[in-house]
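tool_call: predict_structure(chain=1)
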Amino acid sequence: MDNASLTLRELFVVNHTILTQLAWDFKVIITLICCVTALILWKVFDSDRGMQEFEIRVQIRLEELERRTPSTRPRRTGTARPSRKIQQKTLTTR
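tool_result:
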């Protein structure tokens, strides 16, 4: 009887140790999953914000370049083709 109770006590200690270790492992695994998920979400949202900041910087740079460079639109010197309205008027009056 004494040997049987000792065996049950040992089994209980071993089972308790195994369950405690499994619970610890489970906590560690869940914590790692949460940390990795949080890191991924942070990178996704941070990269989105970074993209917006990049687009704003590009827009500012383009505006600066537009202010520095002279207008490249052709100036009207009187040799340009007349507009369609003028062409249509001259055709209908003839």
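agent: The chain has a mean pLDDT of 77. Proceeding to next step.
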